[in-house]
């Protein structure tokens, strides 16, 4: 091969590799976290509420940007009503009553904000803390794998028995439509409940595929930022920031798609439960589900999971960092073109999963970028992961392994106001090219 041909081949390889790598993790021609997100919300002053939102909403209602609303108690949108929220509207959750907003089956929420004028749900307190209020719940008519229909009644403080029926979810309408959440922020939700744990930033139960979720940020949630029980939700450009619980949790037969989304964790923020960036399960107790129905399946693409740390190795050694992904038995996960950076380890499988081709064909990790993790993929409570390393380390999966500082790995992860967690392309390319050369 002459020199000109060599140079041409290297240039083609370089250009092709750049194209292939530029969409690992969250991506976009610009930083789509700009304008609508808020990473310093503790100091944000949204003003004083001048209207109260309480009780049941049984007819079409519109919330206006010119007003600031105080959400009091358990508010249910029901009887087929639609709650429309103007861009820029602020809804403040009452601390004393642990306020919550629920969209019941057959009703809708149209919270369609703008990039420069997002809708905000937040705490009423001056010194805001995770768990200041109850969060948002959307209930739909899509299927789950539970026997009969399900209920989320346990997630409410002081729920009136007359409202128990309003907490039911599930049906057989896969493409059910519960409305729109777009350019929405949910801050400081997830109050603690006795014997249950925590409520969530956004709980989706039986929510159908026609419901739109795009550019939704849940920050400083005491429970899980985003939780889906059953249904067929499609999530795009979601942001979970410093959750005490899980960032994204799918259970009870959810048939979910999540793409171009990010979870940013802190080693110093957690509740009493083991929290991960992504948890995929089909049930909590095997007796509660119907195996004639579909178990949980999650198709995930272009996700970025990162632990913010000044010394990730020290924080891992101190036991402050958990795994990024947990996969339960009888589930399917297809995780593609995603970044897992700074976890202990990257992935754990439930110990009841049998390591054979049938199981591993249902749990896919391809074109991944594993960075600064204390190990890659393991079975729960088992330090010997040779079989899993051999399987997922096969060249056919195009997975990449590296140890790089966040400042080198991401474009601008240290920016406190406008962080950019897209990958630095030249860093990833160098990792791939070096590893190819080492093998030759």
Task: Determine the mean pLDDT.
Answer: 91
As for the number of domains, it is 1
- Tally of helical runs: 6
Which structural class is indicated by helix and strand composition? mainly beta
Oligomerization state of this entry?
Answer: single chain
How many whole angstroms does the radius of gyration measure? 22 Å
Q: Number of DSSP strands?
A: 32
Helix content: 10-25%
Q: Which sheet architecture does the biggest sheet show?
A: 26 strands, parallel
Shape, principal axes of CA atoms? globular
Tell me the distance between the termini: 17 Å
- Relative strand content: 25-35%
The residue ranges in which pLDDT falls below 50 over 5 or more consecutive positions are: 4-21, 429-440
Keywords: Signal
Protein name: Right handed beta helix domain-containing protein
Signal peptide: 1-20
Outline the structure in words:
The chain has six helices and 32 strands. It has 440 residues and is mainly beta. The protein has one domain. The two termini are 17 Å apart. Residues 4-21 and 429-440 have low confidence and may be disordered. This is Right handed beta helix domain-containing protein. Keywords: Signal.
